[in-house]
From TrEMBL:
InterPro entries: ATPase_NBD (IPR043129), FtsA/MreB (IPR050696), PilM (IPR005883). It comes from Candidatus Kaiserbacteria bacterium GW2011_GWC2_52_8b. CDD domains: ASKHA_NBD_PilM. This is Type IV pilus biogenesis protein PilM. Pfam families: PilM_2. It comes from the Bacteria.
Length: 350
């Protein structure tokens, strides 16, 4: 007879974020409601390419499964990770999101109705995708509002092969946005706009009650910002990256702020998301949350806060996770870049 319930037996899980700019791993341990950072590591993707990273198009970012698995094993060896249970994130640009409404029907009939309706929304044959869906709400007239997620089977197979080659036990695959929600917005009562700024794309979503109400990805990210700095100031890419990180949105050529036009493109997507959501009368968005490496851009949070009149903050996935005080400065710098990996690791405790 065991004296320990399942909830108090220590567990450990890995979160793996195969991003377009870096491969990141987080190891989190816990028992009961207590969560502790046990380990972390990353490798920049540009070190794994023979050509300059910025020359690659989004559709060509996927390295071979052997390359990614080899990099993972290198991280595990370097930081001494032995845990094998892992959840992998799937990039937002490889995932299709949509919401739609179904007429009144019995709950038992929803699954078949969703699959039938999916044919109208998913841009690929259903035989080529893995579908998942969630009931968002029942309206007053008993209609069902559905969130549909579709991922190409080719993408699923890709991640499954990486896990196998890296010697990992794959618990689940999830879109990046769900990692961000789990690591920071799971307990949020009011609707929020989540802006995930990656190196090649930015995904703008409205999250309410821990569910995605709408989501849109635009082909504009941190690399576009760096490219603009390099071209505007006639400097090389690495120097432009340093200038961007140091001066952020205030970086100027004469009296012209170089990065504002690109930031405003992302701002347009935020404005669209706010308008669509609030037209649905599903609640009022009270804050904007920035995640991804570019979230740290100096002056960005303040700029969006002034533009939209809503509190804007940088995501902190470690706020409910214990870690040694000596890591405080490192963790502060890591926060927006590791939110997806942390969320993936936390999936194991559900």
């Amino acid at each position: 007879m065991s004296w320990f319930s399942i909830d108090v037996v220590p567990k450990t899980f890995l979160g793996v974020d195969v991003g377009s700019s870096a491969l990141r791993v987080v190891e989190i341990g816990g028992w009961g409601d207590r969560r502790t950072l046990k380990n972390y590591g990353e490798i920049r993707m540009r070190t794994m390419y023979k050509e300059p990273f910025r020359s690659f198009e989004k559709s060509a970012l996927l390295l071979s499964t052997q390359d990614i698995a080899r990099a993972l094993r290198g991280i595990f060896e370097e930081v001494h990770i032995t845990e094998k249970k892992a959840t992998f994130s799937i990039s937002d640009f490889s995932t299709f999101f949509t919401t739609f409404q179904l007429p009144p029907m019995k709950d038992a009939e929803l699954g078949e109705a969703v699959r039938f309706e999916a044919r109208r929304h998913v841009p690929l044959p259903l035989a080529e995708v893995v579908l998942d869906w969630q009931l968002l709400e029942k309206t007053k007239d008993k209609h069902s509002r559905i969130l549909l997620v579709a991922v190409p089977k080719e993408v699923v197979n890709y991640y499954e092969e990486i896990a196998r080659l890296a010697g990992l036990k794959l618990i689940a695959l999830e879109a990046e946005i769900f990692g961000n929600i789990r690591s920071y917005l799971a307990e949020e009562k009011d609707p929020a706009v989540l802006v995930d700024m990656g190196s090649h794309t930015t995904t703008v979503s409205v999250v309410a009650n821990s569910t995605v109400r709408l989501s849109q990805t635009t082909n504009m990210g941190g690399n576009n910002l760096t490219d603009r700095v390099a071209k505007s100031l006639s400097i090389d890419y690495e120097q432009a990256e340093k200038e961007k990180i140091q001066k952020g949105i205030h970086l100027a050529q004469g009296n012209v702020r170089i990065l504002v036009p690109i930031i405003d493109v992302i701002g347009t997507e935020i404005r669209k998301a706010l308008e669509v959501f609030e037209r649905q009368r599903a609640g009022t968005v009270r804050k904007i949350v920035l995640s991804g490496g570019s979230a740290k851009l100096p002056g960005l949070a303040e700029y969006f806060e002034k533009q939209f009149g809503r509190r804007t903050e940088i995501i902190n996935p470690f706020r409910n996770i214990l870690y040694p005080p000596l890591l405080e400065a490192v963790i502060k710098d890591m926060r927006p870049s590791y939110s997806v990996a942390v969320g993936m690791a936390l999936r194991g405790f559900e």
